[in-house]
Amino acid sequence: MILQVRDLRVTFRTEQGMVRAIDGVSFDVEEGEVLGLVGESGSGKTVTLLAVMGLITDPNCVITGSIKYRGRELVGLPSREMRKLRGREIAMIFQDPMTALTPVYTIGWQISEQILAHQKVSKRQAWTQAIDLLTEVGIPKPEEAVHRYPHQLSGGMRQRAVIAMALTCNPALLVADEPTTALDVTVQAQILDLLRSLQQKHGSSIIFITHDLGVMADLADRIMVMYAGRIVERSTNAGIFTEPRHPYTQALLDSIPPMEGARPNRLKTISGAPPSLLNLPQGCAFGPRCPYKFDACAAKPPLGAEAHATACFLESAQ
Amino acid sequence: MTYAVLQRLGQMIFVMVGISMLVFLIFFGTPGVDPAARIAGRNASPEVLQAVRISFGFDQPFYVQYLTMMKKIFVTGDLTSFVNRGWKVVPAVLDTVPVTLSLVIGAAILWIIFSLIIGVLAAAYRDTWVDKVLMIAGLIGISMPVYWLGEVMNLVTQSRFHDTWLFSWVPPLGYKNLMDDPKGWFLTLIIPWITLSILYIGLYGRVLRAAITEALQEDYIRTARAKGLSETRILLRHALRTSLIGFVTLFGLDFGALVGGSALLTEVVFGLQGVGKLTFDALQNLDLPVIMTTVLYASFFVVLANAVVDVVYIILDPRVRAP
Question: Which chain A residue's Cα is nearest to B216?
Fold first, then answer.
């Protein structure tokens, strides 16, 4: 097991009161596994990943619970120690490659900067490594591309450069926050193929976030569905897509346009809006939007430990 | 990159020619005004007026007048002031340039160094007492009028505490030539440099802090953190580096304006015969040739400073370079 998260809670102090962005999230990531995180905006996916990376710098943020990387506790780890892990053991790929690179430095400079931060090599060696990495992520003419500035590359090429940067120290865990959202569809497919082949080659574990259930079905071994800062369902890829148990997961899958049969007049939507984190409903957060709501939902449903776990009382009631 | 630089410098020449025409038009093309009477000054005799008309070609077509004027300023350099009888204007302006340049360049070095230190420190320790103290100090610096600060400086260093060990080294007011007396040059200018730079240290420190704080919110800073870089490196190599672009813009404008005569108050307070002081005196007795020359000189310096800023941009920001 490479990562073990237990009862993670992330709370922000704001002027309107305490906002609990993550409310008791627990999950594991196995070696070489691709774990997908899906959920609406504001459901806490990104905050979960940032907490794992130790990248929440807001002084008004309180993180409790436990994040163990290969048995080593990351919550409360001194920043100097965390820095050694970041970029070397755990690397991150960001959503928007347009803004994720510093505009005033060349791609090669930025990649070798990371190499030099973690490895004892000369600048020349770092530069050669950067060219190799760019070759590996499929950038054409890497010897020229290292001298390019971010604005001189297309979105897809930039995301490849970001991925190359994440791969510099061959990290054991790769964290990807919607790596394809900002790209157009054909480029998306290329980047997904690249991620998959890199994952098979290096055997890194990947946690990735997406809104796109199609991408999720394509890439993930296991999937966690998040809603309002909690995991509502966790299962294998097949488990989620063939046998969704939580009403929210079911509703999400229903909102995908069908590939067969008559074209529906309107796509199904989930009525209502995600709750404000400032003012979460008592009990199940999905309760107000749930068609199956009943008495038991006044309490917070716990998430079981079984392979296909659901935070819903419906199942036990049946 | 070389092409972009040359292109920018070429544009500068065009702008300067345009400015010289515009300035000429404002002074000599204004309808209903006899430029000869302006040049000759108040209470000029008809003979002098006639001499001015011939000397400046006011009986000839407009473009000849313009070319005559430009020739007098840039080629022969024999533009003569009629208010200060027979005074050659161009050498007079050229004499004041080293004074102003010494004052402004020295102050600029001070204000760049200290505003960088203040801005970076305040951004590094933002929202702590360090930040607050520095920002309040900056605000005080901005709020002190330079003529008042200069007089206070003079009072302290020239009069009240001059006889103590602290300020006994301060020489009397006035400018000493750098070539003849480097030590005297340096010592006389220390107090004026500090006085002039305090406003800009406060201003630039605050601007830089704001720019760095904003840059620290950018996505690429998060990427830099995710790479496992140290906070110092992130601050200096990523946040500060991208913030310098705005800093340079501001610097170019202020530096150009100061060299062009905006350092007037400092020059007056410290008895420095600079460009600002010369313009001021010329304005007081309506010495048109001098005003014309200093206005041209000042605008040229602003244009030049802006061109230099653009060249620095090309170095700082790869996005500005030609693709």
Answer: A57
